[in-house]
Amino acid sequence: MEHSSSEDSELSDSDIVEHKEETYAQLRAGKLKVKHGDNAFRCPFCLGKKKQDYNLKDLLQHATGIGAAPKRSAKVKATHLGLAMFLEKDIASSLEKPLQIVVYKPETTKSKEEVYVWPWMGIVVNLHYELTGEAFSNESEDRLRAQLSKFRPHKVTILGDDKDQPFCAIVQFAKDWSGLKDALAFEKHFIVEQYGKTNWNKINCRKDDLYGWLARSDDYNSSGPIGGHLRENGDLRSVGDLEREGMQETEKRVAQYTHQIEVTNKQMSELELKNYQNAMKLDRMMEEKDQLVEEHNEKIRKMQKAACRDSRKIIDENIRLYGKLEAKKKEIDRKGKQLEKLATKSNTNREKLEAEKEENAKENRLLNLATQKKKEQDEKLLRLVEKQKQEKEDALKKLYNLEMQLASKQKLELEIEQLKGKFEVMSHMGEEDTKLKEKLDNLRETLEEKNEEMEGMDSLNQTLIIKERRTNDELEEAKKELTKELPKMSSVRSQIGVRRMGELDQKAFYAACKEKIAEDDPEELALLCSKWEDEIRQPEWHPFKVILVGEEAKEIIKDDDEKLQALKAELGEKAHDVVVKALLEVNEYNPSGRYPLPELWNFKEDRKAPMGEVAAYIVKRWKANRRKNTYYS
Question: Where do the record's region annotations for Disordered lie (predicted)?
């Protein structure tokens, strides 16, 4: 018996499931016998009971009831639960009709529960011994409370008798479970000392000390000062009542918290959705910003190209006119010298010579007038170049300011969206905390300031965009004027000039064709050159293919194009390369129109010439020519 009791004490409630499975395995293996006869069954764990034989239903009811009994030991409950599982799964499954299991529920009727006065109160009597000769007062209550301090009483109230002498004291404890624990310890102390209620009710009880007990229903319903005070300040409650009320309150709070969690989760999901939408909106804004910057840069590049073309035209035209003027001056000087020689040889033709001199002087005046106009045009061109250079710097400066404004605007929009997200999150966290309210007010003020700053920045950006467009239009007009005048200043040996991109290089093509054509026939070469220039301009001929270089798509010439292969076979590799070069240029500069476009070009380094380089070159040439005084007669 002692061994069995030690095993029961060693088995805890957490081990019930494991021991239940072990018992079930032993029953299935036949180590424990349950069935005795056709319809007789016995419990292998209750062999000492008077009733041994059960039918299947009664034995299942027996095993289920003991397994659910709260006062049984853990081992007894585990073995009977294992027996119930075996009967239900292995024995009852062989029957035609399934068994109906009735779960045993221990009786917890309110009539069997002990009823106390709540809030928990204790009664102390025989105060005549403790407070002999004293009238009860607050000081007496405090002293009695200090004497019972180890039971942590909340309040001590002394009641008087008919003669206004201390009769008894009511000790009130805390309303929670710790108060019940203190009250029970209070009662147990007096019981152990044999100064409890039972001892007080004896006829010959000792009157040498205080008696005390825990107030119950009989005290509550009694007559006299004790019953009146208890009924006035408390109610009758059982421990089960408080447990049930606690369970109901707990379930109510759990349901309330569950609802709050669901609402909070829904709000968080909505906030996450809004955050995702804001992130998508910001991504779109960044893409639009990049697209605007790229379009603006592309427009600037086109304007620079157009300005380069115009500048080249002006330079070429100026150089051509300068060459003509120089040739005319030399011719006039040569004729003047001849006239001087003829004048010394013969005076007969003096009138004729005077007439020729007069005519030469007239031509010289016309040339001087042309030179003067040329000078004015050069000065006008120089002013135009300087103006274009200044406008370009202003445009770049405005572009930089615009990009900085755009970046600031996007940063501000991001801050506003983050502030909105924080505001919405904090607004759903409740409004009980004063600090939280202050944070919300500060956040709302910050958000309003950011919105006002955003509106001001939008207005400023709009103004800058309008000014930038107006400046671009003015710059475009200036570049057109420069394009008209620049080719006039160019010469054959100019370092900077205009090259027609996409145009077949006739000189290189002639040189390549001469290696393959035996007879030097200019007409045939001109026909071949014209033919391939027409082929290059044909929009339906597109000998290109797209490849990926890194992450970028790039168009290159098809190696197996029939026309190019025929050209290589007929005129050779060099002529093929000249045509391929023109194709690549026209595909880069004018893929839709398929006709050559002029481009500023650095012939010395064989590359594009930036607008700044062209302007610097024009100014340098103008200053050099001015120092040499070659523009003027």
Answer: 344-363
d(C-alpha 200, C-alpha 386), whole Å? 121
Position 173 confidence tier, pLDDT thresholds 50, 70, 90: very high
pLDDT bracket for residue 185 (50, 70, 90): very high
Q: What is the dihedral of CA 351, 352, 358, 362, to 10 degrees?
A: 160
Task: Report whether the peptide linkage leading into residue 119 is cis, meaning its omega lies within 30 degrees of zero.
Answer: yes
For residue 318, which amino acid is it? N
Q: In this predicted structure, what is the pLDDT of residue 171?
A: 92
Tokens 């012939």 locate to 603
Over the stretch 362-375, which tens digit does the pLDDT of each residue have? 777 777 776 677 67
Q: Find all residues with CB under 8 Å of 357, minimum gap 6, and list them.
A: 336, 339
Q: Beta partners for 597?
A: 501
In 3D space, the residue among 201, 175, 196, 176 whose CA is nearest the CA of residue 186 turns out to be 196
Say which DSSP state 486 is in.
G
> 106 by DSSP, 3-state: which?
coil
The alpha carbon of 519 is separated from its chain's Cα centroid by a whole number of angstroms, namely 74
Query: Is residue 153 very low, low, confident or very high in pLDDT (cuts 50, 70, 90)?
Result: very high
Buried b (16+ CB within 10 A) or exposed e, 249-262: eeeeeeeeeeeeee
**With bands split at pLDDT 50, 70 and 90, how would you rate the model's confidence at 129?**
low
Summarize pLDDT for 537-584 with one digit per residue, the tens.
Answer: 888 888 888 888 777 778 888 888 888 888 888 888 888 888 898 888
What would the mean pLDDT of 284-312 be, rounded to a whole number?
A: 84
Whole-Å CA distances, 564 to 542, 547, 612: 11, 19, 38
Pull the structure tokens for residue 128.
Answer: 């005549």
CB 394 within 8 A of CB 471: yes
Q: What is the pTM of this model?
A: 0.32
Give the 3-state DSSP-derived string for 395-443, with helices as H, strands as E and coil as C: HHHHHHHHHHHHHHHHHHHHHHHHHHHHHHHHHCCCCCCHHHHHHHHHH
Distance in angstroms (rounded) separating the CA atoms of residues 6 and 316: 118
Of 65, 33, 31, the C-alpha closest to 52 is 33
The answer to whether residue 78 scores a pLDDT higher than 70 is: yes
Q: What does the DSSP assignment read for 527-547?
A: HHHHHHHHHHH-TT---EEEE
Residues 6+ apart with CB under 8 A from 556: 544, 545, 547
- Side-chain-side CA neighbours of residue 58 (13 Å): 10
**Is residue 612 helix, strand or coil?**
helix
Q: Rounded CA gap, 64 and 72, in Å?
A: 12
